[in-house]
Write a structure and sequence with these properties.
Shape: globular
Helix content: 25-40%
Structural class: alpha/beta
Length: 482
């Protein structure tokens, strides 16, 4: 199949932009790329998809997502963090069923695909533990927990939808944050060492590299203060032994910094002490860092996931992105969860990532559109250890790409296609999405999922969760509704 006559933002090593370009796809790979007239003549008789007045980009890569939380979109707006997390999000997630987890995964993936995300890093999927089940023997419980909550369902949703997913299974052994009772977790979210670490290893054995290598299983460690030093060291040892990458929230809020100081560490000196730093680790948010932390990240090749919308909405602060770039740290981009972003649209996230640092620094040249597109593509691929197969449009890489329809009044005229993508385009402008050589979105419509069934199921299950959690009246609008 030849996809022809588009403007191609290759994000290759020379950052080449090809006007009136074409991509030849053979099975799941990019077999050729170049000028449309040359490729059409070279591959005479090949079926051609005409993408005139479209911009094609590599598939977007979100380096931080909470798929379960999409059922909670809008359920915790305008709250401070402790109330947001402990009184809303953890309570609601603690009332999930396995079917809810699957429905949440499906609507998250549907939204991501329709808005151009072809690969994502899920941060922390749990095995659902109800208090009444806590006395079950481990050998029986592990199987039941895997069936009850989301990991199998999430993997199944990835497999069925055609998206590419790196899926973090939670690792934890403390039921609160930094042993502070005000940060206590809902019982339905609590796991011990055996269930969390043992479950992660079981899921890695079952699912890693399945779905034609579209699924990768990671460790999704809870933030420091939610995991003992001993468990971190055990997990990082297994990470090296079994080649399992790690993702973890870190230095997101000021309370994190207070915790690190209480144990006589900075964020990165602590992470270093338990073996968390290195090129197979993605640390998320990373707002409250000092210069020594940034230097340690660069020295160890540790990756960062920047989530500007989440950090702004929850008033967590603003990541020191310019300083991270200057030090040579690889930084990707993530949307985080729907309750602290309200969308899974990476194109919207790109715009804020480009703008917010200009406002803070009073320097409009500080972060460019080109840097942000790199964050959402090749930098994300590097963070996931997949830059040899995705992240740019190059011969031999997987056929993961997106076509954006520029034939709209809100997108014309434009002069730089990169600036147009970063500052003007949203996910609603995505027309075509190809993952692993398969068309999963055509004409803006999903081909691998029934959209109406997906959103209706999510609507039903989301409201049921709120009711089970006893929060129906709490979530009424602030303004009178008749």
């Amino acid at each position: 199949m030849l996809y022809a006559h588009a403007t191609l933002l290759t994000v290759n090593s020379t950052r080449e932009i090809i006007s009136d370009g074409a991509i030849l796809v053979r099975e799941n790979l990019i077999a050729d790329i170049g000028k449309a007239d040359v490729l059409i003549e070279k591959y005479a008789g090949e079926e051609v998809v005409d993408l005139t007045r479209r911009i094609m980009i590599p598939g977007l890569i979100s380096t931080h997502v909470h798929t379960a939380q999409t059922l909670l979109r809008g359920a915790a707006d305008d709250l401070e963090l402790v109330g947001w997390l402990c009184e809303r999000i953890w309570v609601l997630q603690g009332n999930f069923t396995p079917e809810d987890g699957y429905a949440a995964a499906r609507i998250s993936i549907a939204e991501m695909l329709k808005s151009g995300t072809t690969c994502f890093l899920e941060s922390m999927v749990i095995f659902h533990i109800c208090p009444s089940e806590a006395s079950l023997a481990y050998s029986d419980a592990l199987i039941q927990f895997a069936d009850r909550y989301g990991f199998d369902g999430l993997c199944r949703a990835v497999e069925e939808s055609g998206i590419r997913g790196c899926l973090g299974k939670i690792v934890m052994d403390i039921a609160s944050y930094a042993k502070d009772p005000k940060w206590g977790m809902h019982p339905g979210l609590v796991e011990d060492r055996e269930t969390s670490l043992g479950g992660a290893l079981k899921m890695h054995e079952k699912w890693d590299k399945k779905a034609n290598d579209r699924i990768r299983v990671w460790f999704g460690a809870r933030t420091p203060g939610g995991v003992t030093n001993e468990l971190y060291k055990e997990m990082t040892g297994l990470s090296k032994e079994k080649n399992i990458p790690i993702t973890m929230h870190c230095a997101e809020v000021r309370a994190d910094r207070t915790f690190f100081e209480s144990v006589n560490h900075t964020p990165m000196s602590y992470c270093s002490s338990v073996g968390l730093l290195g090129p197979k680790t993605v640390l998320v948010h990373m707002v409250h860092l000092d210069d020594s932390d940034i230097a340690k990240l660069a020295e160890t090749g540790t990756h960062v996931a920047h989530c500007p919308t989440s950090n702004a909405k929850l008033a967590s602060g603003i990541c020191r992105l310019p300083e991270l770039f200057k030090a040579g740290v690889n930084v990707g981009l993530g949307t985080d969860g729907a309750p602290c972003n309200n969308t899974n649209d990476m194109l919207q996230e790109m715009k804020l990532a480009a703008i917010i640092h200009k406002a803070k620094s009073y320097d409009p040249t500080l972060i460019s559109a080109e840097q942000v597109l790199e964050m959402a593509t090749i930098n994300g691929a590097k963070a996931l250890g997949l830059d040899h197969v995705i992240g740019s449009l190059e011969v031999g890489k997987k056929a993961d790409f997106v076509a954006i329809d520029m034939r709209h009044v809100h997108l014309q005229p434009y002069y730089s296609p990169v600036s147009a993508v970063v500052y003007s385009v949203t996910g609603r402008d995505v027309e075509l999405v190809v993952v692993d050589g398969r068309e999963v979105v055509v004409g803006g419509k999903l081909r691998t999922m029934d959209e109406e069934q997906v959103w209706r199921e999510a609507e039903l299950r989301g409201h049921a969760i709120v009711e089970r959690a006893g929060l129906t009246r709490t979530l009424q609008p602030a303004w009178p509704m008749t």
